[in-house]
Amino acid sequence: MPDANRLGEVGEGWRVANATLMNERVSIGSSRSVPREQSAIGYAAQTWRGHPELRTPELHQRLLKLWAEAEVARLAGERLRQQLAAGTPGPEGSAAKLTYARLNQEISASRSSWPGRTA
User: Fold this and answer.
1) Residues 114, 119: Cα–Cα separation, whole Å
2) Is 96 in contact with 28 (CB distance < 8 Å)?
3) Helix axes of 40-50 and 92-113: crossing angle, nearest 10 degrees
4) Residue 98: pLDDT above 50?
5) Run of H or E including 17
6) Where are the alpha helices (DSSP H) in 30-91?
7) How many CA atoms lie within 13 A of 64 on its CB side?
8) Distance, CA of 29 to CA of 12 (rounded, Å)
9) Please, which residues have CB within 8 angstroms of residue 60's CB and are 6 or more apart in sequence?
10) How many CB atoms lie within 10 A of CB 41?
11) Can you tell me the distance from the alpha carbon of 28 to that of 7, in angstroms, rounded to the nearest whole number?
12) Distance, CA of 8 to chain centre
C-alpha cells in the first residue's frame, strides 16, 4: 500500500482498525439520544394506554419488565455519550449495540403478540 493511502504509522494498523470499529459500534449503538416517547418502548406503552381491551396481568408484567430494561439501556447510553465526550470510545459501544438490538426485538415481538395486534 502506498504511504499516501496509509492511516497511522507503519505497524499501527490494528490500533487504527480497532479505533474505527469502536467508533462505528458507538454510532450504531447509542450515539444519539431518542426521547423516551419516540422509542420502541414508548410506542409499546402508547399502544398499552390506547387499548385497554388488550390488558392482561401477564402483558402488564412483560411491559413493565421491558420498560425497566429500556430505562437501564437509556441510562447506560447516556453514560456512554458522556464518556465519549471526555475521551475515546471503548467496548461499551459494542455492548450498547447488542443491548439495543436485543431489546428492540423483544419489544417488537411483545407488541405483535398482543391479542388483536399485528404490529
Assistant:
1) 9
2) no
3) 20
4) yes
5) helix 13-29
6) 40-50, 57-86
7) 7
8) 26
9) 48
10) 24
11) 23
12) 31
